[in-house]
Amino acid sequence: MNEAARFAPSAEATADIGGEIHALVSRLFPICRSITGEGVRRTLAILSEHVDVAVREVPSGTRVFDWTVPQEWNVRAASIRDASGKAVVDIAASNLHLVGYSEPVARRMPLSELRTHIHTLPDQPEVIPYRTSYYSRDWGFCMAHREYLALDDGDYDVVIDTTFSDGSLTYGEVFLPGETDREVLLSAHICHPSLANDNCSGLAVLAFLARALAGRRRRFGYRFLFAPGTIGALCWLAANEERLSRIDHGLVVSCIGDGGGPVYKRSRRGDATIDRVMEAIRCDGRKIAMIDFSPFGYDERQFCSPGFDLPVGLLQRSAFGTFPEYHTSADDLDFVRPEHLASSFRMIMDIIEVIETDRIPLNLSPKGEPQLGKRGLYATTGGHKTTPDVTMAYLWVLNLADGRHSLLDIACRSGLPFSAIAAAATRLEACGLVGDAQA
Amino acid sequence: MNEAARFAPSAEATADIGGEIHALVSRLFPICRSITGEGVRRTLAILSEHVDVAVREVPSGTRVFDWTVPQEWNVRAASIRDASGKAVVDIAASNLHLVGYSEPVARRMPLSELRTHIHTLPDQPEVIPYRTSYYSRDWGFCMAHREYLALDDGDYDVVIDTTFSDGSLTYGEVFLPGETDREVLLSAHICHPSLANDNCSGLAVLAFLARALAGRRRRFGYRFLFAPGTIGALCWLAANEERLSRIDHGLVVSCIGDGGGPVYKRSRRGDATIDRVMEAIRCDGRKIAMIDFSPFGYDERQFCSPGFDLPVGLLQRSAFGTFPEYHTSADDLDFVRPEHLASSFRMIMDIIEVIETDRIPLNLSPKGEPQLGKRGLYATTGGHKTTPDVTMAYLWVLNLADGRHSLLDIACRSGLPFSAIAAAATRLEACGLVGDAQA
Amino acid sequence: MNEAARFAPSAEATADIGGEIHALVSRLFPICRSITGEGVRRTLAILSEHVDVAVREVPSGTRVFDWTVPQEWNVRAASIRDASGKAVVDIAASNLHLVGYSEPVARRMPLSELRTHIHTLPDQPEVIPYRTSYYSRDWGFCMAHREYLALDDGDYDVVIDTTFSDGSLTYGEVFLPGETDREVLLSAHICHPSLANDNCSGLAVLAFLARALAGRRRRFGYRFLFAPGTIGALCWLAANEERLSRIDHGLVVSCIGDGGGPVYKRSRRGDATIDRVMEAIRCDGRKIAMIDFSPFGYDERQFCSPGFDLPVGLLQRSAFGTFPEYHTSADDLDFVRPEHLASSFRMIMDIIEVIETDRIPLNLSPKGEPQLGKRGLYATTGGHKTTPDVTMAYLWVLNLADGRHSLLDIACRSGLPFSAIAAAATRLEACGLVGDAQA
Prior knowledge:
The structure is a homotrimer.
Chain A: H1 3-6, H2 11-14, H3 17-28, H4 38-48, E1 54-59, E2 63-64, E3 67-68, E4 72-81, E5 87-90, E6 105-110, H5 111-115, E7 118-119, E8 141-142, H6 145-149, E9 155-165, E10 168-176, E11 183-189, H7 196-214, E12 221-227, H8 231-239, E13 247-253, E14 263-265, H9 273-280, E15 289-291, H10 300-303, E16 312-316, H11 338-357, E17 361-363, H12 389-400, H13 407-414, H14 418-430, E18 434-436
Parallel strand pairs in A: 7-8, 11-12, 11-13, 13-16, 14-15
Antiparallel strand pairs in A: 1-10, 2-3, 4-5, 4-9, 6-9, 10-12, 14-16, 17-18
InterPro entries (chains A, B, C): DUF2172 (IPR032610), DUF4910 (IPR032589), UCP015244 (IPR012353), UCP01524_HTH (IPR032622), WH-like_DNA-bd_sf (IPR036388)
Keywords (chains A, B, C): Plasmid
Protein name (chains A, B, C): DUF4910 domain-containing protein
């Protein structure tokens, strides 16, 4: 069967996939998530409407490598009220207002004391920052600096109605088995509250990708991971340690719905196949910006730790920390756009197409160029100043199909997109000029 | 014998070699060439006045790898006349007017029909383009777009008096044997009609090079090939398949008479000796611009196909397709200049000098620098701010002559021209400071 | 014992080391040095006040590889007087006035003859150039071009009261043994007369470094060489040939007191450890500019000759030949500044710290990141846009501490200074997260 044809644009890719993904982002956005608790479970429940998510629960207190699963944290209410009883901050307005994992508080205090628990961004006075205190017992509120400056002196009633309890950490996993036992890992963190790009976008795009892949033949198995950052990824790694050697390629996906980038951060190895795939694909016709691995970011930090060193990179539109909306209330439903979500969806589908269809072609007529014209693959009139890319793709495949270059190698060396090289190889195979070096 | 001295500037190089080459270009220019026919034979006959050309004839219909030698095509006349009998296009004015390999026509037709057979360049309305249709039966005319727009409505008498016949494809070969059985290939395509730079220039420069080399000692054998593009090169490859392994270095030479560049396109291997030679020589004191191999261009496409993968690059002044005169009637005898032809001749002689004289020197006094001053190789007064290149060449040769670096290696690492490094090595050998690592 | 702590800033580094070094430069500056003679001995005597210098004498006429130690040259007086007896040039004013190794002269001569022995810099008319004629018997004076132009016609009395005698070449050596038999070579040329940067600065900085290192534990032995350029270095190489294999790292130090650079010229090997060390250290927070080896400069020419090929680079502030004061009377005590001398001293101490403390760390918790927060190594509040360098250093060490990367490797790959990486490793070791891969 023709490999390339298996991954031709599907109904999913051509319909209003961007609108559908954005609708899912919009449903996930309001949920108050953290690294444990009901927010994660509600999120996984919504994702389960699209794909068959296996929900895993890891009990509080479980030792995971150097870590311990923390107690489950849930929020009922959180507010600051002034002396008149008016709420100056209320989590009902934005769940960014409460520092993640804040301990319960119910106390009146003067502004001077309250201030030591308030986080703002003086340089961005209109937006609420996002802060957490997962592993150090504390409490706090986040608010717009402009509103913070407007607080009157006096006493405030602080209520943080949160619970810590022995429960569990929750993560979700979708596995689509392939024809071989080799696997591709696609991971998105699920622990952030109302931040649309970081990472409702990643969750939603991966859910639609899983749905799209479910109905196709797959050489590789695909493992989708929706887990809380760091501790969730570590739980999954601990539970799957003996099968990690099956993972040939992986991507962490976050901040995938804005209009920047795309930017790809290479795996720790730096020359993994996934790293080279990213050079050979295009997003809306543009090359992907590449940056080297560094041990900071999302869960590639865990996957690429020296004890695992998996071939996993990080794919984003705008790189984390580089856009002003990052980790603020400005990372909202307007910041992520259907067209960017659709473009990211297509880009990852193209990545998967490379992974699925890469092969080593063999030129069956390697002495000189074969006569392409008589096969309808070459202009009949000669003398033009330039050569179409489609012709160049034929010539590159023929020139490098010596049994030592894969289609991916040929794409990287030629500078042409993998899709153009793969299409040329398929056409040349149909003409009998190229075969399979591994056959 | 001193290797460098063997290639000191010869009488050819110092006389008006540019004028002589241009005169040969001028004789070749008017001939109506194609991939077969009398034009190629007349061209080879003129080249034979300068060097001993072996003329090869390959019968029409011969299978050559994936190709078949086409019928021989000859032209007697070709014109378009208006109703009054006035020739609006006539091959007598320029043999670019006729599309190469046009089939015979003798028919009156309206302008509307004629138009579908006319090729022009709307962006360059004053010049005639060059077009061919070798492998697809068709006919056509090329003309200046300005004249095309001036054609009146009405009927035209089209006469194309061409013949297709079982004959042969013709190519020429000059072989100058060397002291060893290793060979250098120098190839220029002979199939283009009246285009001075592309490639009367290549034919003429190679003819003079062959004449200049004929009278010298040669470590390598030199094989000059004057063959029609693609099919001619393939004929030669097929006839010489068993001896291709003798070829250590090769150059395809085209567009070598204009004032641009020079530009060198690397071999498919990318790190062949010829590729490194081009970094170490200079043309009129300037470095050669380098571009990577791509499987489009001239007959390096065939020599570098995966079944042969010969160490052959492409040497040009302006790269094909990049200058406005390319494949138009503006590529005429004014576009190629004697000074550029002479400079290209010297450049290729310098390339050959590197190939002939490269060797691995051995510093016989490797502990510390030897005292160059007492041998007259160093300034007697010390303290100057800068060091002359000639001194730097001595120091580089001494420093790298450890038996692991050739003169070419030393030139590339030092950034000095090979000629300077070779001269320094020769002088150091004369002083007994350097010997031959291979002796 | 903690390696990093051994090289914590010492009293030397924090006191007014710059002022002390500049005071030593000021004492060395007026001495009339050459490649032999009393000037070198007086210089070594002053250096001996700071460190225990072993003074070596190599008799005139000794064969040293391709060279012969020249006769000892000493100067009593040198002047040019006009007809009125007025000194127009006198070595008492500047010992640059006399060309080094000038032969004795006592003769009246017309200006026309005198002119052929006068060296000036027309482009820098106010300064006296520095010139030598070590190995070719000659004599000459150097003077400011402006004064040269003001010379009246007429006769002049030239007196050069110099002596050539069988004596010796003198060099000094300081050796501080280490715990192992591996050695570090630090070399500064001692043959230049009154040039403050080139190289009173190098001599003085190395003397203070030797003094600072003398009181510390040292893994490596440190060999400081104060030798005349070329012939002095060759004498040392000849005398130490059998022990050169002990040298793991080396630096030639010159022009180390001005405000430019720093610039490091790599060793001939190009990838020696010392070459990589220079990428990982900082000078006043800035990276060191790197240039490739070339066989011209100071005594790295001898150390890096192919018969020795030692891992020795050249460290400077402004690179020789690139600053207008180079080899002129403008290279004076104002051109070198205490703050630059102190900065250079600290930079070389930092280099030595890398050499002494580099090691291969091993992450003892390699599966995922260990939990840094519970060890006080990570911010307790999460969500910030940027990460402090100190955190990045922990993460880089942990990520690359797989037993295949040294601290130096980690510094180079991370782009962080070695000092930051080493401090992070030390802290992680204290926490039990990192051990020694070689233990």
